[in-house]
């Protein structure tokens, strides 16, 4: 949270003026801004220092996993290890053709680079709207906005009316567009956080900017074309003087039926030596706590930890 030193700064007015354009961050770039609006400025402690860490990120090869039982067991074990140590891994030979991935990224770019009047009817912060376009305008006074636009498509139990999806875009869930930033040292594309979902499948273009937190060090993720046993890795996206950066994230969440049941640590991994450290909770309870806390928390899990 950044509180501007200028006592006459009207945070709410500037946010509203930006939001009313329904043009997103891309609209600011198209207008030729040389300085970012104040509500995009992040506190210095959250801004990136140059990454000096070069680590070999886990990469899992899915070759042969469908037809070879022994190979499948190997891949499952590799995923378990990577999820436990890193909370993150890259996959190769996954069976999705390169031309499909390229077409998805191009569709996202095509949507966001449409004239404003062709996409503004989708501009909304209402989470009940299953297909919406917005620009992460902060809901709490003096929270910092991020330098990105997003088209969100929400599938409930894999169901979504195809007619609701913009013609310019694919059926991805979160279609992210990070425009070139005139002052990348003052803001972020996405702040430090961990996802609320069970699993996130992410595809990014060749621009880069994604970082994950590993052993208290930020590690670059170069683009390449639980009961605390599995880590929900904290990550962020840097604002950059080049772009746009395009990525698409598929978030896997409980079905409506499963979401009505309480979640708890997996019984098979519990023992006297490894007792449960989290209480039971509903997915809705977890999600709402995370969202209401805004930038005050990067994960909701500690809230549900059993007090020792």
Automatic annotation (TrEMBL):
GO biological process assignments: coumarin biosynthetic process; response to molecule of fungal origin
Keywords: Iron, Metal-binding, Oxidoreductase
Top-level taxon in the UniProt lineage: Eukaryota
Protein's UniProt keywords contain Acetylation: no
GO molecular function: 2-oxoglutarate-dependent dioxygenase activity; metal ion binding
Fe2OG dioxygenase domain segment(s): 169-254
Gene3D superfamilies linked: B-lactam Antibiotic, Isopenicillin N Synthase, Chain (2.60.120.330)
Similarity comment text for this entry: Belongs to the iron/ascorbate-dependent oxidoreductase family.
Protein name in UniProt: 1-aminocyclopropane-1-carboxylate oxidase-like protein 1
Species name: Forsythia ovata
């Amino acid at each position: 949270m950044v509180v501007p030193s200028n006592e006459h700064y009207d945070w709410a007015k500037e946010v509203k003026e930006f939001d009313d354009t329904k043009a997103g961050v891309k609209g600011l770039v198209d207008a030729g801004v040389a300085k970012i609006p104040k509500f995009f400025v992040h506190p210095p402690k959250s801004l990136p220092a140059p990454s000096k860490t070069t680590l070999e990120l886990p990469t899992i090869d899915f070759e042969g996993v469908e037809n070879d039982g022994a190979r499948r067991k190997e891949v499952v074990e590799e995923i378990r290890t990577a999820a436990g140590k890193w909370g993150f891994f890259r996959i190769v030979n996954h069976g999705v053709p390169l031309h499909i991935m390229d077409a998805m990224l191009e569709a996202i770019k095509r949507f966001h680079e449409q004239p404003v009047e062709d996409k503004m009817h989708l501009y909304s912060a209402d989470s009940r709207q299953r297909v919406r376009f917005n620009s992460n305008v902060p809901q709490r006074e003096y929270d910092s906005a991020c330098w990105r636009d997003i088209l969100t498509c929400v599938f409930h139990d894999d169901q979504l009316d195809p007619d609701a999806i913009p013609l310019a875009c694919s059926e991805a869930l979160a279609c992210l567009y990070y425009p070139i930033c005139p002052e990348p040292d003052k803001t972020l594309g996405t702040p430090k956080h961990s996802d609320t979902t069970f699993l996130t499948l992410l595809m990014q273009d060749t621009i880069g900017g994604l970082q994950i937190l590993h052993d208290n060090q930020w590690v670059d993720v170069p683009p390449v074309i639980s009961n605390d046993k599995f880590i929900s890795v904290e990550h962020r996206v840097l604002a950059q003087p080049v772009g746009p950066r395009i990525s698409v994230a598929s978030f896997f969440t409980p079905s409506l039926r499963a979401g009505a049941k309480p979640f708890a640590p997996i019984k098979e991994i519990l023992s006297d030596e490894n007792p449960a450290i989290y209480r039971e909770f509903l997915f809705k309870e977890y999600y709402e706590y995370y969202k209401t806390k805004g930038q005050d928390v990067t994960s909701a899990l500690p809230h549900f930890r059993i007090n020792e």
